[in-house]
From TrEMBL:
<dbReference type="GO" id="GO:0004722">
    <property type="term" value="F:protein serine/threonine phosphatase activity"/>
</dbReference>
<dbReference type="Pfam" id="PF13672">
    <property type="entry name" value="PP2C_2"/>
</dbReference>
<feature type="domain" description="PPM-type phosphatase">
    <location>
        <begin position="2"/>
        <end position="241"/>
    </location>
</feature>
<dbReference type="InterPro" id="IPR015655">
    <property type="entry name" value="PP2C"/>
</dbReference>
<dbReference type="InterPro" id="IPR001932">
    <property type="entry name" value="PPM-type_phosphatase-like_dom"/>
</dbReference>
<protein>
    <submittedName>
        <fullName>Protein serine/threonine phosphatase</fullName>
    </submittedName>
</protein>
<dbReference type="InterPro" id="IPR036457">
    <property type="entry name" value="PPM-type-like_dom_sf"/>
</dbReference>
């Protein structure tokens, strides 16, 4: 497997509150984690970097090629719980950080499968001949779409589109969505923050990923988001099963 990732401040925000990590694991597996922090000038940075550091270290130290599917699930969910505990404790111990949190998407790609856990509105996609969203946004507008109150098109420009209903570190416990997907040779997993998906269409993401090598497609996607306004921090990681 080959992978690449990049984070960019965008054209409007003064700081980058996104963070990410991606690396190899034993047996040729790969992990990636993407976070989009929130909570004031410093809180978002602290939440996202803390979560990425803890989850990365936990996955790297706990993973081995002999883990079965349940073992991988336990490892991912336990890693996110550790991060939630740490971010929540920091927010309680420092008034300047009170209420901070972060979205989270974590993936382990192993044995032609992708094991994905997430909370918030950062996303995971599977891209081959088509593009398929593997995560459900935990957001106000997503609930409104599902309840038939607004259309998917209206959700893209809704004034509450940035309000999420789940975030790591905000409460003592966190409900995490977890899923397993076939990840065949030639396919690509992409995980990203909403700084990409609010500004670049799924179709453009698909065509760029299909056309380019991982490192090149990352740069092109970030540049596309910036060309379309760069209104938020942008983070993208791709993993390709070769």
């Amino acid at each position: 497997m080959i992978f690449s990732g990049r984070t960019d401040k965008g054209k409007v925000r003064k700081t980058n509150q996104d963070d990410f990590a991606a690396d190899t694991l034993s047996g040729g597996s790969v992990f990636a984690v993407v976070c989009d922090g929130m909570g004031g000038a410093n809180g978002g940075n602290v939440a996202s970097s803390t979560a990425v550091d803890i989850i990365s270290e936990s996955l790297k130290s706990g993973y081995n090629a002999n883990l079965d599917e349940n073992g991988i699930k336990v490892l991912i969910l336990d890693s996110i719980k550790k991060a939630n505990d740490a971010v929540y404790e920091k927010s309680r111990s420092d008034p300047a950080l009170f209420g901070m949190g972060t979205t989270i998407v974590t993936v382990i790609a192993a044995n032609d499968k992708a094991y994905i856990a997430h909370a918030g509105d950062s996303r995971a996609y599977l891209i081959d001949d088509d593009i398929k969203k593997l995560t459900r946004d935990h957001s106000i507008v997503q609930e409104m779409v599902e309840n038939g109150k607004i259309t998917q098109e209206e959700a893209l420009v809704h004034p509450q589109k940035n309000i999420i209903t789940r975030a790591l570190g905000v409460e003592e416990s966190l409900e995490i969505d977890y899923s397993v997907h076939e990840f065949k040779k030639g396919s690509t997993i992409l995980i990203c923050t909403d700084g990409l998906t609010n500004l670049v269409s799924d179709e453009d993401i698909k065509e760029t990923v299909k056309r380019e090598e991982p490192e090149d497609c990352i740069d092109k996607l970030v540049n596309m988001a910036n060309s379309n306004g760069g209104s938020d921090n942008i983070t993208v990681v791709v993993i390709r099963n070769v």
